[in-house]
Amino acid sequence: MSDRVRVLVFVTAADAGPEAVEGAYHRISRSLTGTPGLLANELLRSVHDPAGFVVMSEWRDMDAFRAWEEGESHRSTTAPLRPLQDHSRGASFGVYTVQAVYENRTAAYAGGEKG
């Protein structure tokens, strides 16, 4: 269906607080502006666990994601979230290929920084 790839990074605010997660997410997102192949990223907060977050990034394809992941700036750019990664479920991230999509274009949301 699609070559698109979504990367989920599991993050916890249990020790640092939600402001630390949100701040790190926004710093990283600003740094990633213009990254080839990066289509979008989102910060999701759990409804059931207010300390639980997921950063979801969407990539054009696996080649674009791998090029960025293996590049020089990957580790330094994502460093602010690294201490906040949630290792309680084993791996703190997952990489998924998009297999099918149903879209509802009648509703749109454009979120940004609060405040």
Automatic annotation (TrEMBL):
An annotated Gene Ontology molecular function: monooxygenase activity
All residue ranges annotated as the ABM domain in the record: 7-76
Record's keyword terms, sorted: Monooxygenase, Oxidoreductase
Gene3D superfamilies per record: 3.30.70.100
Highest taxon listed in the record's lineage: Bacteria
Keyword Oxidoreductase in record: yes
Name under which the protein is recorded: Antibiotic biosynthesis monooxygenase
Species, as recorded: Streptosporangium oxazolinicum
